[in-house]
Amino acid sequence: MNEYSTLVTSAQWRQNPERDALIERKFFSDSIGDKYDVQKYIKLAMNEVDEKYTQKTLQAGERVKIHLQREQTWATYKYQGSVMTKTHIKGYSDIDLLTICDKFYSWDSSGVNKILDSITEKQRFYQTQIDKLQYEKTLDSYKGDSLDDLRSMRLTNERVLQNTYDICDISNPKAIMITNQDLHRDVDIVTSSWYDDVQSIISDKGDFRGVQIYNKDNHLKESTDFPFLSIKRINERGSSTHGRIKKMIRFLKTLKADSNQDVKLNSFEINAICYNIPTTEYDDATYLQLVIVLYL
Questions:
Q1: Does residue 192 contact residue 101 with C-beta atoms inside 8 Å?
Q2: What digits encode the pLDDT tens for the residues 268-277?
Q3: E-strand spans in 94-219?
Q4: Distances 92 to 112, 155, 191, 268 between C-alpha atoms, Å
Q5: Please, which pLDDT band fits residue 1 given cuts at 50, 70 and 90?
């Protein structure tokens, strides 16, 4: 019992680092009726971080964006990560800001050609989708040097942020980390470019677009990620399950944070585990029953 009491205190501190009295009262009111500390811990571990903390995190990201936009006129700025699905478990959460180069994009030419060159493959798609793939092939290729463009963007980001923030770490080849000392938030600024696979092209891109992160040390683009599709899927599943999938994600993240073991799961993998559970198994589940769903 004492162990769970300690875990409850740890989770409360993580979600309410400023010891806000209103949030403390909410913790208390939410736990009324929970007889045991283990019940309190499970419920707290599944709770969404208070909105005011999340807004401060986003505000820190917006301030970075404003500074960069003054000089990066050929970039798109997008957030990725758990803050965008509200599955983060810390009040003092950091956020990833992608600075995406708009001068060029890469696309899956081999995948597109494989479909267009095969009658059998074409039959899997509607004609409107085939038309989009064919149109992609007609577009002129970029005549500049995409890696040099990304390097220039990264170096510009470094200069602007070092001149703006007292705490600015540029040692990571894939991201710059700044600390907003007024808001007590870290922001990771990632230089990247767009990538469109077949699904992105036939879906008019948007949330289906991938990104390739620039590695400054190796002067190359890393393998493609699809962060916006992941955000879209978790948010849609969250709506259709009345937030239950997000409760499970937060619970697993909290267990990882409080575990004495080195849990080899990142946030993306935890999302995937929960997303792959059939919703029929937890459509009407209570918060305690969600633990059983995860266990089984």
A1: yes
A2: 999 999 999 9
A3: 95-107, 168-169, 176-180, 185-196, 210-215
A4: 43, 28, 23, 20
A5: very low
